[in-house]
Structure formats: C-alpha cells, structure tokens
Amino acid sequence: MSSYRCKSVGVVGSGIQGVCTAYQLLKKNIPVTIFDKTDPLNPEYKMASYGNAGHFSPYAVLQFNRPDILNDVPKMLFSSTGPLALKWNYVHKMVPWFVEYLKNCNKKSMLHTAKYMHQILNLSIDAYEEILKEIDTTNLIEKKGIIYVWTNKNLKSRNLEIKVRNDLGIKQKFLSTNEILKLEPNLSPVFDAGVIYEDAMHARSPHGILKKIFKLFINKGGKFIKAEVKKINQINFNQTEIVTEKQSYKFEKSVIACGAFSKKITDQLGENIPLDTERGYHVHFKHMDKLIERPVIFLDRGFGLTPMNQGLRAVGTVELGGLKNPPSKKRIKYLIRCAKELLPQLDKHEDEWLGFRPTLPDFLPIIGPSKKNKNIIYAFGHHHLGWTLGAITGKIVSGIIAEEKTNLDLSPYSSARFN
Ligand SMILES: Cc1cc2nc3c(=O)[nH]c(=O)nc-3n(C[C@H](O)[C@H](O)[C@H](O)COP(=O)(O)OP(=O)(O)OC[C@H]3O[C@@H](n4cnc5c(N)ncnc54)[C@H](O)[C@@H]3O)c2cc1C
C-alpha cells in the first residue's frame, strides 16, 4: 500500500470499464464522478457493454492478428456472406489501422498478444467475483461453460488455437459431434467437433449487471453527471479538467473509458493512437432462450448464440466501417441465416442492434497513463474481450491511480507502443 492518497477522479464513460474502475476507486475511499452522454440506467442505453454476447471468456487469448487467417482476409472482405465485412466508404479512413495491423500480423506479435491477454484474462473472473458478491446476480449469471463448434474446413487454425492455449495452461475439453449433441440436443449437427470451456460463464443480461454495479457505485457515494465530454486538459501537474458543453470540472486525475469513442479525446491530447472499431451485431429470438443451455459459438461463421433474459441472442460478425455508417441489413440477414443453420426451429427475430468493439491493431487494450499527461489514465481498446476484462481493468486502473505497486507487467498495454 502506498501512503499517497488521490483526492478526486473523474471517469469519462459508464460502460463496463468506466463503472468497474469507478467502483474500485470508491473502495479505496477516493471520491469519483462518472461522466457519460447516456445514463446507463436508461432503458435506451445501447452501448457495447449492453449488447455484447455476454461471455466471460478467460480462455480467449488468441485474437485476429494471426498469420493463419491473413490469407483469408481479402476473400472474406469481398464476400457479403461471410463473418467479415467492409463498408467501402470507410476504407480510406482505416488505412493507418490496417498498416499497424499488418505490422502486427505475424507469429511473434500473435504470441505476444496471447501472452499479455492471458496475463489479465487469467485474473478476470476472480476480479468479477469480488464485485459480483456485492450485488444480487439472481437470473443474471449462469455458470455452465461455453461451447465452440467447428467444421473440418479450417483445422490448421483450430490446431494452432489448441496449441497456444495448451502452452499457456488453459483448460479445454474437446468434444465430438455426439458429445456436443448430448449437451445441446436441439442443435442441428452441421459441425464436426468442438470444445467446451467449463470454467467460463455467461451473463443473461450484460446491461442488467452493468446497471447493478452502477447502482452500487451510486449507493456508496459515487457521483454521475450526464453530459458529453468535449475534452480533457491537464492544467498543472496535479490537476486535470473535464470539459463538457456547459461546464468544466476539476479533478486530480481523470480516466478515459469511452470504448470505441475514446480516440476523439486522445487525438485532442496530441496522442496519435490508432484506435478503430470492429462493428458487431445482435438480434433476439424471443422466448427461444431455452433451446440451448449455454452459449454456443460457430467458429467458421464468426457468430454465436447466447441464452439471455431478452431471448436467444444471435450475436457477432465483424464489420469494418467506423462509428458513423448506418447498420447493414446484410449483416443482420447473415446473423439470422447462421442462427437458423444451428437451430432451424427459430422463427421471427426482433431488436436489431449494432455495437462498436474498440479495437487496436495489435489486439491489446490500452491500460495506463497517457504518454503526455500522467494524471490522465486510459482504459479502452478491449476489442472482443471488453466484457470479460471490465472488472480486472477496474482493479488495475484504480491501482495505478492510487500509485500501488503491482506484480503485473503493464508495459505492453501502454499507449507509448504506438508513438
Ligand atoms: C457484437 C459484440 C459482441 C461482444 N461480445 C463480447 C463477449 O461475449 N465477451 C466480451 O468479453 N466482450 C464482448 N464484446 C466486447 C465488449 O462488449 C466491449 O469490449 C466492451 O463492452 C467495451 O466496454 P467499454 O466500457 O470500453 O465501452 P462501452 O461499453 O462502449 O462504453 C463507453 C461509454 O463511453 C461513453 N462515451 C463515449 N464518448 C463519450 C464522451 N465524449 N462523453 C461522455 N461519454 C462518452 C458512451 O456513452 C459509453 O457509455 C462484444 C462486443 C460486440 C460489439
């Protein structure tokens, strides 16, 4: 424990990173104010921390910066019926991201990402348990594992994933088609094999959990201001300023946890961080959640099904197209087709949703002080794993703010790697 005590913190963003960070700061008796343009308690709140697949996936160390899929990327991009799609009007804006991505798409970077994702993923469930024991999670969380299924088409990639996970000591139990059908008898056997991660769990309502953590924060004395933050300044060595349209607020330290929207603020701070978004979609099949016991992901299709309180959520795909393009009907149709391939009994869908994964080209998040302003701390860029990593990010960021010592190697998450 350090003897230093931070006097006040402003956290921008009430997604899962912001709320968990704010909660952990309060636990250290540091006064905290969260800013968000949308109130997370509002039913209209529809950010990534609302609409994701709800997986707590501590095993998911491998990301898309892997040489085995690089050859398939152009083919996938030109097809409107695959798991990856592109909005062509956005290609030119994504060039800096692609350049960095290509630099990071090799075996060495892939293993670096896997190692440092594993470092934090491995702590992710314990960090959540600490928070979850303080809220009533009845009907919000299920601990039945997560199943991935695949066909024999991309066995080279499947074998690579299995090896990397084995090397890191991640528990995985392989399943034949029959064993999968014993666990999930309603699935159509359109796959050849799979794996279950028995220690994984899933949220039946990510938004429900987010709201409960947020309410806990408010009940313990945290403050919330509903406003869009225009910029953050460091006015002197121990004072930052959060500027909204109407007012500005002073805090000793500030945290940027705006998910895919963080770049707008970091650009103003003069840091050129190549953050972009992988857009993803979901739809619900109402009252169909009982068809499966646990999440099932079809790897070849880049999509999955999660049983949730809102219904059976068909969720996934990656679309590169920025924050402003409208949702694509083709992506929704793709999701529905994939869902019906696994469960032909599905009928009408509702609630078409588009969300924004915040993704850096090396598929590591940015967690740590801004390169230019040490009192401004970053907590964004958690791509496909931001739901899983919310609680551990909150612990790490609150530790940085309180100037506590850590045994973790945090240097790989620094924004300095891009500057
Ligand atoms: C389809 C899909 C499926 C996913 N499935 C999973 C999964 O199963 N497991 C998993 O671990 N992860 C999953 N993810 C990823 C995960 O949802 C995200 O990484 C995570 O929610 C990001 O959290 P966040 O707090 O960083 O950002 P967000 O949830 O996007 O929150 C950012 C907040 O900042 C606010 N904000 C932004 N700019 C400003 C501003 N200028 N002023 C004020 N407020 C601002 C926004 O209103 C928002 O509330 C999925 C994502 C998608 C899209």
Would you kindly provide a written description of the structure presented here, covering whatever features stand out?
The chain has helices at 16-27, 48-51, 67-70, 72-78, 95-103, 107-121, 124-132, 155-167, 177-183, 206-219, 262-268, 329-342, 390-401, and strands spanning 9-12, 32-36, 55-56, 84-86, 141-142, 146-150, 173-176, 193-197, 201-203, 223-226, 229-236, 239-244, 248-251, 253-256, 276-285, 296-298, 303-308, 311-320, 350-359, 366-369, 376-380. It has 419 residues and is of the alpha/beta class. The protein has two domains: 9-49 and 208-272 and 363-418, FAD/NAD(P)-binding domain (3-Layer(bba) Sandwich), CATH 3.50.50; 54-105 and 136-201 and 275-359, D-Amino Acid Oxidase, Chain A, domain 2, CATH 3.30.9.10. The structure holds flavin-adenine dinucleotide.
